[in-house]
Design brief:
Shape: elongated
Largest sheet: none
Order of helices and strands: HHHH
Number of domains: 1
Structural class: mainly alpha
Strand content: under 5%
Number of strands: 0
Helix content: 55-70%
Number of helices: 4
Radius of gyration: 14 Å
Distance between the termini: 12 Å
């Protein structure tokens, strides 16, 4: 898959996570346990950003981590949501796992995943 398509998917995924995180609690989709959803969502966004911006892995790591923390902080601006350190740590762990997975995939499939 071309890096441009992956980057578009990464941004769309991050926007969907932001919408789910900041929407009223009753509109939040439920697929599994809340911690698993948090971890999985940020693992996916970390993976996609890591594959889209392979030359900037450290910036991707900072960006995904900043997004995790920023969304938790922004929840304090909504009337029925609340950000917690524990939730931010789960999101951070997912993001790091996703970016790490992108690095491993890049190493395994060096020819198939070009530097971008």
């Amino acid at each position: 898959m071309p890096p441009r398509i992956i980057s578009v998917l990464a941004w769309i995924t991050l926007l969907a996570i932001a919408a789910a995180t900041l929407s009223p609690i009753g509109l939040r989709p439920h697929l599994a346990s809340v911690s698993f959803e948090r971890f999985g969502a940020f693992a996916l966004v970390g993976l996609l950003f890591g594959l889209a911006y392979t030359r900037h892995i450290w910036l991707v790591l900072l960006f995904v981590g900043g997004a995790a923390i920023g969304l938790e902080v922004l929840q304090h601006l909504t009337p029925d949501r609340h950000g917690e350190v524990r939730d931010a740590l789960v999101k951070l762990a997912g993001g790091v796992a996703g970016v790490g997975t992108s690095v491993v995939l890049r190493m395994l499939f060096r020819k198939a995943i070009p530097l971008s």
